[in-house]
Amino acid sequence: MPKNLLCLLSQVLLLSALSTTALASETDNITHRNLKTDAREWLNQRMNDAIEEAAMKANPKNSYSVHKKLFKSLGGLFWAKIEKWADEPGSPAEHVKFEDSIFRDVGNVRGDSSFLRKLIKFKSYYSPGIYKMDNVVFGADKLGHFLQLGYSMYLANEVQDNPKFKDVRPFHIRMADRLTGDKKFRDRAQSTGLQLAIEYSDFEENGSWGMTGPLAKSWADMAANVEGFKFWSELTDGPNPYVKRDTNGRWYQARKFDWATYVNPAWDEAINRSDYDPRIQGEIDKRFEEAFKNSRAELPSVKEVIEVYGEDTPKIFNTRYGNVFAW
Question: Does residue 302 fall inside a structural domain?
């Protein structure tokens, strides 16, 4: 077999295995909420550096080039590079060990939706990094959802108007979309705009990115996805894009990015709680309530979520737990 064909086959087989096992992350942001540093300034600097660099490197003659450069620098296959910011020296992110988390009793539970799922323990999906912005605490994985899956929803919306709209992601990521069913969902989607992003997020969290993957439907992930869709939609388009062309046709960053525009309490799984596989829901709920009583930290208000999403709130916020907190 030719070497290049063998390499391609190996990549396809690897993607197939990954797409049925290692998707998404679960974080614990209730056990430890008194983080020392507000991450807004640090995260803003990192994101603005990335946008500025993407604009500088983008091809002036290519309308998709800024998107491609930015996704390449911060995206990834199933875990985005932006999520690794939490592990960098000087990062304001703090970490909760699995053994101290609300998931510690269910770490050895395995999936049952496929042969490969049965080989993966729940704790393999755990991500320890968390950030704080104001009184919202969220997992580093939310940045990945914002950047990576937000682009998928932006792509789904754009191809509705222009079937030839270019997908800037690398081949292996586009191939993974076929294996996870994302490509099929986009091809069949009828909605547009925010409603499309919400429906797409619900599809993912009920499938490989959620219930059939890490055994959890994260409503906070859905909120991050939707906000990422908004960001990509205004990166180079709309009335006030982040990146524009100058009089010579070259791309430049026209305005600063601020995470506070997008991060809201719906990103915080302490109030926008996840649903879990029935086999592990009870144990996690018990540990959650224990951690909540011990935390004594101020939780963000759900009222801000309602202000952001209005009548769409029940599609993004898990109202099953709404009676625990003051609306």
Answer: yes
